[in-house]
Amino acid sequence: MTDKKLITRYKEYLKANLSKKRYNHSVNVSDAAVELAKLYGEDPDKALVAGLLHDVAKELPIEKQREYVLKSYLNVDAVEKVSHALFHAVAGAELARLVFGIEDMDVILAIRYHTVAAGDMSRLAAIVYLADLISADRDYKDVKRMRKLAVSGLERAMLEALKFSITDSVVKGNTIPVSTLEAYNRFLTETIKKEKNDKARKGAG
User: ∠ CA 147-93-145 to the nearest 5 degrees?
Assistant: First the structure.
């Protein structure tokens, strides 16, 4: 069970260092992550913490974020080292470790990959990635569809989420980290395999 005093500490830090809108988003992502963790058999306490802290570095000065990124012991590719929009995920993982003393790599990597995803991301990281897209404050065009997908199957939901992200990046002319493409390939392969297996089971029945 997550220490309530720790959660209070995290929330106090977020309130002091994020705008009210970003703080509310963080709480909403945490709530969504907990529900998805319960649905998919992952640790809801880890989901709570990772969801709550996923944007902990979002409103730090960009140079401070860059500093965390360049000093990170995590695997950070060339695209992430120059894209301001991507700094906060790596910076957040580092901040969680250095400021809050979080050593659980499942939580650290869920924060680290909540924006770019990765081919070898854990189920917890996928859950936080999806929770960020479907949190109660989100209101983009396809959010209702994404919320339905998120609770209908993790692989298919991640595939559709990555299609959305990659398409958006292409339209905007943004660079795409290698880890994002690797995640797309993984979840495409897993979705195709799962659908074939489901079809075979129905045929056998």
Answer: 10
- 149-187 burial string, b = 16+ CB within 10 Å, else e? bbeeebbbbbbbbbeebbeeeeeeeeeebebbebbbebb
Opening angle at CA 18, ends 20 and 58, nearest 5: 125
CA dist 91 and 140 (Å) reads 26
Task: Write out the two tokens for 25.
Answer: 């988003």
Provide φ and ψ at 184, rounded to 5°.
-60, -45
Cα angle for residues 126, 127, 133 (degrees, 5° grid): 95
What are the helix (H) ranges across the chain?
4-17, 20-39, 44-53, 62-71, 78-82, 84-98, 105-112, 123-134, 143-150, 154-172, 178-204
Two structure tokens written together for 36: 């998805």
According to the model, what pLDDT value does residue 28 have?
98
Q: Give the predicted TM-score (pTM) of the model.
A: 0.94
Task: Check residues 102 and 2 and name the one with the higher pLDDT.
Answer: 102
